[in-house]
Amino acid sequence: MISSAPPLLRLHDICFRYGPENPAILRHLHLEIGQERIGLVGPNGSGKTTLFQIIVGLLPLERGEIVLNGQKIREEKDFRGLRRQVGFLFQNADDQLFSPTVLEDVAFGPLNLGLSPEEARDVALHTLKELGLAGFEHRITHRLSGGEKKLVSLATILSMKPRLLLLDEPSNHLDPGTRNRLIEILQTLPQAALIISHDWDFLARVTNRLLSLDHGHLHPCDHEYLHTHQHLHTYGNHPHQHGETQ
Ligand SMILES: Nc1ncnc2c1ncn2[C@@H]1O[C@H](COP(=O)(O)OP(=O)(O)OP(=O)(O)O)[C@@H](O)[C@H]1O
Ligand SMILES: [Mg+2]
Question: Which pTM value belongs to this model?
């Protein structure tokens, strides 16, 4: 059966460089995202974060087209609308969190969407609870640990109920238990997602398609590639299992 619904997000012929003196980072890049979970891998500096910043309008397009639900995104007004539907988790949580307390940060998005302060508070508390962060609401944001900041950042996005998640290295700085909790959370969320990570095992568990960004283009990767490798155990020679935990 042929579906006539447009993809959730379509990137067409995207080109970008940081100023004329710098090399091209994205070269005629194409991507279509439907109701799916895509892992995005690629070497350091290949342009993964840059691509996310372009999608949400934090960097200007040099050439190309961004289409959300069949609607072309051209000007700042369009990007404002896009940012209500596309939740962007920054690579560095300190860039994301800016309010004094966790509750204020997580309620900020819903308030911006027009909810009353009471409604925004309820949504924020519910989202924190869903992420296992009940009781964090009055914590001072800048005093949270790195992993806690990452989860609270995720809460600030989920509280806006976006249709598409752009997650930039969400499992970074998480201990194995918290990383597993994040995997379980992502597996239960309904949203489509594009997830940047250098953590291949993480991507294997939370995505169903893999793309690699290299030399400005996206290339499909095998999602499952059976191989053996030497590895280091985080907790030395403590008893452990392979597969479910690191
Ligand atoms: N404002 C800027 N001006 C000039 N060059 C920049 C700027 N921001 C990033 N770059 C360069 O653009 C390239 C792509 O950076 P980007 O952060 O998108 O890479 P990345 O794939 O996310 O890397 P990583 O895996 O290390 O996070 C890098 O070489 C980076 O140094
Ligand atoms: Mg990056």
Answer: 0.90
